[in-house]
Amino acid sequence: MPFQPPSNTAVRPLPDAAAEAFVEALGTDAVLTAPGTVDDFRDPFSHPGWSDHTAAAVVMPATVEEVQAVVRIAGEHRVPLWTFSQGRNNAYGGPAPRVPGSVQVSLRRMNRVLEVNEELAYVVVEPGVRFFDLYDHLRAGGHKVWSSAPDLGWGSVIGNALDHGIGYTVDGDHAARLCGLEVVLPDGSLLRTGMGAMSGNRAWHAYPRGFGPTADGLFKQSGLSIVTRAGVWLMPEPECYLSGGVQVPRKEDLPVLIDALRPLLLDRTLQNHPAIGHPLFIASVMDGAPTRAEVYDGPGPVPEEAVLRLARQMGLGRWNMRFALYGTEGIVDARLARIRKALSVIPGVHVVGEKFAGHAVHDTARDQNAQVQAGIPSLDLMRALSWYSGEGGGHLDFSTVSPLRGQDVVRVHALLDDQLSGSGLDYDPAMILGQRHITNVAQLYFNPCDEKQTGDAYRLYPELVRALAGAGYGVYRTHVDFMDAVADTFDFGDHALRRFNERLKDALDPHGILSLGKQGIWVRTAPPARRFAQPLTRFRPRAASLPSPLPQPTTMSNGAHCEDQRPSPAQIYEHPRAHRRRLRPSPGPAGHRLRLHRHRRRRGLLREAVQGLQVRPRQRQDGHRAGHQARCHRL
User: Fold this and answer.
1) Is the dihedral angle over the CA atoms 358, 173, 175, 83 positive or is it negative?
2) Which of 118, 133, 199, 580 is 20 to 30 Å from 597 by CA-CA measure?
3) Range in 95-104, 262-271, 594-603 the model is least confident about
4) Which CATH architecture describes the domain 113-236?
């Protein structure tokens, strides 16, 4: 199906009563409603003419109490909220809301470091604290602890962790290093997780669980709360730190490299999250590298011979890995020797390392790889955007997870390379290694001012989602446009996980106030005024792959598509989840019989379970006991 431009319908304005209530609670300066100011919080890589994710207003609370007030006002006026901490995850939509007309809740003003506990190596921060802010705070206080950081340091420490972001120290699994959350629930009440559920508990940020079910995971990649503070684990400053590098000369060396690294990660000889990069991506952020046009100016993606030529010119391998070691100097040396021995099975492999004193790395490390593996944030990788797409370039990140096996990496690369090269895009993956898995990030570069180029990248994305899911690989994080498409691929048990998540959403947030549609999770019912909360249709699957009752786009004489390609309000069900179900093929008579069979079977199992109970009600009178038994029998 050809690319369909957005309908660009006018965004529903914020009701006056709600706007006045927000101003009364926060002050005039903390409530933005003018289009010029609200537009500053849109998806920075979206085409300027698209308005699918435009907000009605932005509110900026500065305290927990103000967050609670915002949530209660939104609930009273049935105004959907979309929360962001810094909103810098630009390849995934930035701060843009899933539902147009939402009120964006910016937590940038909540930017305090509340506690530094050097003895137990943790901090307590608010969601507006950036990686830059935390690093500067620790340095200014002379604290001998390091925080993990991603490649771009302008994001929120909490926000990145809640979205399952990744860093490159021993604490690189950012979601796992959160310990103890404070959250505002959809009704405006305050909850603390883990040991924090006990007033005055002294181990809240030292022990990640509490008493009973652990709720922390419900608030990650979630629209069930607004997180207002969190404990974040750090690592003690090591005596010695080594920033290492590995180069292998051939494309086919990658699976051998992966399989050789796996034992080193499992036994923790390799301590951090190593990253493997393609020569194109590495050259894009190097000083003195030729431009993309100088590397190759022909049609389609850069061919392999040009990639190898660039690698030789810049002193790179065909695959290039960074890694880090920490500890005493003797331990670091022993680990490096073991790594060299394990990788010696690859002909032509080159392993290097630069050692730093832990206390001096902040002043002596100049290379971005050495900095980020010591938790020193930067913005150096931003240069890749202009290298690929010119000034003002943008990109989408397509991030999949596979087992840490060479055969799986080869399969993922073959699928993505085939899809991207067929669309004329370069495939220059970045791979981040965990102990048992590998996160493969494919960048889809484009110039947002070029609507066709941008639309081509957006149209390709759901095709990648389906292709990888069909091979058994899932996306762990995605752009707001494709949250429903990714959620559709997690289909075990007729989408049992999504149905479970939506039952939780229905129970805690029945009106869909907080981050409606995030991760493809919608509420069961919504009032007519929420009709705009429909899944996007401009990137619908091809007609051949999924029957759709929606009208096909018509084409004008000039080749452009009409603006009326979205379903009219009369074609949309009363609530977004029902509309999503319309896009599923009908199960047919056999499917209905199967559902009826399952329903009857569940009723039979329930009856058997109840009848099997040894119910012994207290003896009161014969009539009461007989009535109780009769009710059980009817079940």
Assistant:
1) positive
2) 580
3) 594-603
4) 2-Layer Sandwich (3.30)
Tokens of 534: 């429909």
For Cα atoms 65, 68, 74, give the angle at the middle one, nearest 5 degrees. 140
Q: Which residues are catalytic?
A: 92, 476-477
Beta bridge partner(s), residue 245: 322, 352
Phi, psi values for residue 166, rounded to 5°: -130, 140
Nearest partner of 354 among 327, 342, 336, judged by Cα: 336
Residue 602's pLDDT band, with cuts at 50, 70 and 90, is: low
Q: Strand, helix or coil at 401? A: strand
Q: What percent of the chain has pLDDT over 90?
A: 76
The Cα 334–Cα 337 span in angstroms is 5
Residue 405 backbone phi and psi in degrees, to 5 = -135, 140
How many C-beta atoms lie closer than 10 Å to residue 237's C-beta?
21
Q: What is the overall mean pLDDT for the chain?
A: 85
Please write down the HEC assignment for all residues of 330-346.
HHHHHHHHHHHHHHCCC
Q: Which distant-in-sequence residues (6+ apart) come within 8 Å of 478 by Cβ?
A: 92, 398, 399, 465, 485, 486
How confident is the model over 335-346, as a mean pLDDT? 98
β partners of residue 319: 248
CATH class for the region spanning 243-482: alpha beta
- In contact, 414 and 427? CB cutoff 8 Å: no
Dihedral sign computed on CA atoms, order 379, 383, 389, 395:
negative
pLDDT digits (tens, 9 = 90+) for 512-570: 999 999 999 999 865 333 333 333 334 433 333 332 332 333 333 333 333 333 333 33
Q: For 605-618, what is each residue's pLDDT tens digit?
A: 444 443 444 433 34
- Report the predicted TM-score, pTM, of the whole model to 2 decimal places: 0.83
Q: How far apart are CA 398 and CA 475, in angstroms?
A: 7
The answer to whether the Cα torsion of 590, 593, 597, 598 is positive or negative is positive
Longest dimension (CA), the chain: 95
Check residue 595 and give its pLDDT: 52
**Helix (H/G/I), strand (E/B), else coil: 592:** helix
Task: Render 242-304 in DSSP notation, one character per residue.
Answer: EEEEEEESSGGGHHHHHHHHHHHHHTTSS-S--EEE-HHHHHHTSTTPPPHHHH--SSSSPPH
Retrieve residue 527's tokens: 């009032």
Digit-coded pLDDT (tens) for 422-468: 888 999 999 999 999 999 999 999 999 999 999 999 999 999 999 99
Domain residue limits, the chain: 113-236, 243-482
3-state helix, strand, coil in the chain (%, to 5): 40, 15, 45
Q: Answer positive or negative: Cα dihedral of 417, 1, 483, 580.
A: negative
CB 85 within 8 A of CB 103: no
Contacts of 195 (CB under 8 A, 6+ apart): 180, 201, 203, 204, 206, 207, 209, 210
Whether residue 578 is predicted with pLDDT greater than 70 in this model: the reply is: no
User: For the sheet containing 240-248, what is the strand order?
Assistant: 350-357, 240-248, 319-327, 275-277, 430-433, 437-446, 394-403, 474-477
Quickly count helices (H) and strands (E) in the chain. Answer: 20, 19
